[in-house]
């Protein structure tokens, strides 16, 4: 019995983390038509920034996180301005953006090493609430992750559906030229999208940094899982991403439980490759992928 | 004889490669030269898929590592003749490339990038998982050095390794040059620039991409083997982010899609990276900034700069006998406003 509840808990925690990562990537992908390789490094930077705010100002953890989200969103604007918009219109622009964001990863990782040094750091747990579920205890950051991730992404879905900025985002997603004809300025929408995505990554980073030690390379594993989520759910659809994130979380929890930590990623990636071969448009998506 | 001009550079290239170690005699400089040849080979082979074919191939680092691990396992576990490990590593990288190619069958563009990147990362987990064979996180140590008769390639400041690397570099440069001018090379450009038209003219995208993928993988596998013999150790670092970004910066600094650009990129990035060896994280900061500056200011890289410089020179020479017309009015307007 406890096996099932352990798997269920880690499915919800991992799924939540991957959801926060992948939702941002999907949003960027569907509107800008580029792929942000630097998303993992942004997650890491957000986590470290939260740590700094917490330790220098003495503010509560949740306030520090909010401050980090705002600061990182500003960094996201710079990121869009320097790394995405100069290349997006060029021929072969998606490859240039990919390389530019890889360079940004390098810059952010070595920057973090210079700023925060090599010693291990960790954020304190988010709150002390605990819940007993069928014999296993869920508490602190895990509980917050389980609740917060779907809440934030649900909020995003609501904004995309109801608000005027959400409408323009969806219009650009569906038909860039026509949206521009209607007078929607793509640059402003791009900026909004990247800032939201970076904010989400920061939340994921702080949650992760509270569950394990932080390191400059801490973002690369979540980034890889987010790739798998996109492959699974079909990049460009938020519903597919939500389902994909929890499916990959479940797959990882089950394989870790039964095969151990070193085999779980292999099995997860194999699943991704098989899906890409059998159903390249994503299991839950019908649009054909041609980028 | 009209083709004489196009081929005259090759003997000169060979002579430069042969004379370089006589000019650079200190061990550190020699090692740098060897690294340049190895990175040059890798960057050239990667540019075949990334630049010419336009495939978002991030598996090249995986092929490089698989070549290195094949050599490591072969020579330490089976006692096979070390020289034989060089071509065998190329073959095993080609076999791996067949697996990595699977996603290219049905995916396009950026999705290929995701799948092939995951492939290289998968290699790390497989190596760690098969610790009995690969040494896990300790890697493989004690790989015997290559020797020719009684002479170790390490002797005299590793001069043997340099000539092996230089020979590989020369051969691969020639291969890339011939390949890009061949029907295969032209069809790759056609697929990259207009796939629908190319396919309608009877070019099979899958077939042409598979061929270039395998050629690139074979070269990378041999380069990996070379790296294993040069260092004497193989570890999972070889699949890592460091090599990936270093090589990408060489290709894009030199000019992706140009034949010789990646060699120039390999020279510049290797020298810069060596000069900053002791600078710790600053080295990555400088290299990353270098990539970004090149992407911003010269998207075609050094090769593009060189080409436009040559064109500008020719234009100026051509214009010398007639009065300059185009540039004058522009400065005039500027003065007015």
TrEMBL record, chain A:
InterPro entries: ABC_transp_permease, BCAA_transport_permease
Transmembrane segments: 6-27, 34-54, 60-83, 95-116, 136-160, 189-214, 226-251, 258-278
Top-rank lineage group of the source organism: Bacteria
Its membrane topology: Multi-pass membrane protein
One Pfam family here: BPD_transp_2
Keywords: Amino-acid transport, Cell membrane, Membrane, Transmembrane, Transmembrane helix, Transport
UniProt-annotated location(s): Cell membrane
Biological process, per Gene Ontology: amino acid transport
Gene Ontology MF terms in the entry: transmembrane transporter activity
CDD domains noted in UniProt: TM_PBP1_LivH_like
GO CC, alphabetical: plasma membrane
PANTHER family referenced in this protein's UniProt entry, alphabetically: BRANCHED-CHAIN AMINO ACID TRANSPORT PERMEASE PROTEIN LIVH-RELATED, BRANCHED-CHAIN AMINO ACID TRANSPORT SYSTEM PERMEASE PROTEIN LIVH
Family classification: Belongs to the binding-protein-dependent transport system permease family. LivHM subfamily.
Protein name: Branched-chain amino acid transport system permease protein
Automatic annotation (TrEMBL), chain B:
One Pfam family linked to the record: BPD_transp_2
One Gene Ontology molecular-function label: branched-chain amino acid transmembrane transporter activity
GO cellular component: plasma membrane
InterPro entries: ABC_transp_permease, LivM-like
Keywords in alphabetical order: Cell membrane, Membrane, Transmembrane, Transmembrane helix
TM regions (residue ranges): 7-24, 30-48, 55-76, 82-102, 109-128, 159-179, 210-229, 241-269, 281-298
Compartment list: Cell membrane
Major localization class: membrane
Region annotation (Disordered) ranges: 316-337
Membrane topology designation: Multi-pass membrane protein
Name assigned to this protein: Branched-chain amino acid transport system permease protein
């Amino acid at each position: 019995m406890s096996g099932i509840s352990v798997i269920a808990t880690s499915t919800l925690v991992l799924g939540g983390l991957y959801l926060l990562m992948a939702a941002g990537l999907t949003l960027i992908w569907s509107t800008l038509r580029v792929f942000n390789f630097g998303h993992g490094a942004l997650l890491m930077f957000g986590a470290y920034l939260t740590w700094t705010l917490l330790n220098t100002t003495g503010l509560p953890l949740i306030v520090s996180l909010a401050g980090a989200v705002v600061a990182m969103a500003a960094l996201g604007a710079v990121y869009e301005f320097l790394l995405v918009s100069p290349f997006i219109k060029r021929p072969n622009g998606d490859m240039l953006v990919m390389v530019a964001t890889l360079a940004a990863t390098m810059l952010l990782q070595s920057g973090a090493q210079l700023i925060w040094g090599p010693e291990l750091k960790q954020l304190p747990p988010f709150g002390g609430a605990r819940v007993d579920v069928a014999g296993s205890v869920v508490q602190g950051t895990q509980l917050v992750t389980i609740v917060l991730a779907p809440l934030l992404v649900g909020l995003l879905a609501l904004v995309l559906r109801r608000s005027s900025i959400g409408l323009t985002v969806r219009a650009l997603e569906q038909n860039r030229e026509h949206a521009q004809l209607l007078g929607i300025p793509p640059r402003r929408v791009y900026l909004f999208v990247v800032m939201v995505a970076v904010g989400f990554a920061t939340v994921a980073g702080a949650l992760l940094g509270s569950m394990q030690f932080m390191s400059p390379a801490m973002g690369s594993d979540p980034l890889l899982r987010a790739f798998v989520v996109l492959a699974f759910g079909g990049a460009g659809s938020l519903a597919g991403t939500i389902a994909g994130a929890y499916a990959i979380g479940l797959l990882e929890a089950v394989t870790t439980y039964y095969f151990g930590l070193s085999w779980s990623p292999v099995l997860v990636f194999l699943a991704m490759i098989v899906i890409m071969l059998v159903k390249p448009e994503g299991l839950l998506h019908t649009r054909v992928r041609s980028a | 004889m009209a083709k004489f001009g196009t081929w005259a550079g090759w003997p000169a290239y060979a002579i430069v490669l042969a004379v370089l170690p006589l000019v650079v005699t200190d061990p550190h400089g020699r090692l740098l030269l060897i690294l340049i040849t190895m990175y040059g080979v890798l960057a050239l082979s990667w540019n075949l898929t990334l630049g010419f074919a336009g495939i978002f191939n991030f598996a090249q680092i995986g092929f490089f590592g698989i070549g290195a691990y094949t050599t490591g396992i072969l020579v330490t576990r089976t006692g096979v003749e070390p020289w034989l490990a060089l071509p065998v590593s190329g073959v095993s990288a080609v076999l791996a490339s067949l697996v990595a190619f699977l996603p290219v069958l049905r995916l396009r563009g950026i999705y290929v990038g995701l799948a092939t990147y995951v492939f290289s990362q998968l290699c790390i987990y497989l190596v760690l998982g098969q610790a009995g064979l690969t040494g896990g996180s300790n890697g493989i140590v004690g790989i015997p050095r290559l020797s020719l008769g009684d002479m170790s390639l390490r002797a005299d400041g590793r001069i043997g390794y340099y000539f092996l690397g230089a020979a590989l570099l020369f051969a691969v440069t020639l291969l890339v040059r011939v390949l890009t001018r061949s029907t295969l090379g032209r069809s790759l450009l056609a697929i990259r620039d207009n796939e629908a038209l190319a396919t309608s003219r009877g070019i099979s995208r899958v077939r042409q991409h598979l061929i270039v993928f395998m050629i690139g993988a074979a070269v990378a596998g041999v380069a990996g083997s070379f790296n294993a013999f040069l260092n004497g150790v193989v570890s999972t670092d070889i699949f890592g982010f460091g090599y990936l970004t270093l090589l990408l910066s060489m290709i894009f600094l030199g000019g992706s899609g140009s034949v010789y650009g990646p060699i120039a990129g390999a020279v510049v990035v290797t020298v810069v990276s060596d000069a900053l060896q002791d600078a710790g994280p600053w080295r990555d900061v400088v290299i990353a900034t270098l990539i970004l500056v090149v992407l911003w200011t010269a998207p075609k890289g050094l090769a593009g700069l060189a080409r436009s410089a040559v064109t500008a020179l020719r234009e100026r020479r051509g214009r010398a006998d007639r009065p300059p017309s185009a540039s004058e009015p522009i400065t005039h307007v500027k003065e007015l406003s």
